[in-house]
Amino acid sequence: MKKLIGIFLTGILALGLTACGNSSSAMQNSAESQTEKGKIAPVEIPEQETGQPENGYAQAEADSEGNKTLIAYFSRSGNTKRLAEIIQEQVGGDLFEIKTSAPYPEDYDSILDQARQEQRDNARPELTLPVENMEDYQTIFIGYPIWWGNTPMAVLTFLESYDFTDKTVVPFCTYGSSGAGSSFQSVSDAVPGAVMFDGFSISGSQAEESQNDVQSWLDNLETPDSFNLETKTVRLNSGYDMPIVGLGTYSLSDEECYQSVLVLLENGGRLIDTAYMYHNEAAVGRAVRDSGIPREEIFVTTKIYPTQFDDPRQAIEEALVKLDIEYIDLMLLHHPGTGDVEAYKVMEQYVADGKIKSIGLSNWYIEELEEFLPQISITPAVVQNEIHPYYQETDVIPYIQKLGIVVESWYPLGGRGHTKELLTNEVISSIADAHGVSSAQVILRWDIQNGVIVMPGSSNPEHIKENLDIFGFELTDDEMEQIKVLNRDEKHDWY
């Protein structure tokens, strides 16, 4: 698992020890920074008796690889400020306070009224000072209090004022009684192209003494695309957790599909993949409803086919009606086609409305992604491609994962007509014998250890159960390498 501490904390913790008590501020100036929805207004920087700008030119700290860390925060009562200070004490870096040009009211109820109005208006309050040389910061902690159940709009002004592409963004917040709400998702949406890490939230009344809680969070902080083998999930860049093993329903008839989904759910599986072109969305939805398992514990993926791109809104509504499960956890464009960008933008609107939780792509490769991604607002949470030991996508998978997008495999066992050849491969069979498992389990475990979600298709109850049981053993580095050399770049479908 990729831990945040392994990326940047190791180097800057040492710096933080030497910097305790020496709070450094992010470099600031009065230059105007203009964005489409909000702006940072120029103001005069107050001078000290020496005539130098107050906290104007603090030396930024960097880790051993030269990566600089910024802890930016917006605070009303001081709770979020204190939390930011505790984070700085533990990781080092520079503090920067986000301030609005027009101060908010002192009265708490008045603030909430204003916050609610700003959310209704989708306002972007004007800010005072910008961060100088923001491009030099690689890791940005962003803190705020929860206002009216979400991120203060001033924080969105700040986030939209800079390019966070390829930067690491880590949200943290204080709250009264509502928890973090959807604020982490709001932050993620405001920084397309950034790598998002798990956020931290705590009651404002506990912020002052939160050192241990913050340290525990930092110690266990993971990138969204890190697999958690205990919960058997991965945190998507959308902020939602997705199971890493599931069931593909391609070619399953209604009754086969219904029974297979029930078997999956009865045996602990929670990920189901369907599509418009599979003609079994209604069967999937019926099984989910009949399972007796809380809806929020189940993750359902469906897809829009290119023939639907001319009217994506109708396609989405049709999927919602057929599934009849309140919302769609993940919706993908099935593969590239005319009108795919416009169709994706409609999916983005449904994310904003809460009817779709996460969106992504299927059968997109490097060239297609390079053309597609600059035209959209929400970074895909998942890219689903054909991946198996004979077609390993050794260039594509790292490219996608570097973007903070989770990779998912369809045809993980080679696909119909090719499965037998793969399962009887001598190398894979030998590894299976060594672990006392099946060849299918070895292949699925190989995918998981490569950071790839798997959704093998089957209507056989025993196979469905077996495919879920891949967490009781681990492949060695040598075994992973043995499977790696089996690659033939042999694609088994036309996508």
| Oligomer state of the chains in this structure | single chain
The total domain count is 2
State the helix count.
17
* Helix fraction bin: 25-40%
Strands side by side in the biggest sheet: 12-13-14-15-16-17-18-19
Which spans have pLDDT < 50 for at least 5 consecutive residues? 1-61
CATH topological fold name of the largest domain: TIM Barrel
The computed structural class is: alpha/beta
CATH superfamily of the largest domain: NADP-dependent oxidoreductase domain
Report, as a whole number of angstroms, the end-to-end distance.
30 Å
What is the mean predicted local confidence, pLDDT? 85
Radius of gyration: 24 Å
Q: β content, as a range?
A: 15-25%
Q: Could you say what the CATH architecture of the largest domain is?
A: Alpha-Beta Barrel
What best-fitting shape do the alpha-carbon axes yield?
Answer: globular
Strand count, sense and barrel status of the largest sheet are:
8 strands, parallel
Number of strands: 19
- Indicate the CATH class of the largest domain: Alpha Beta
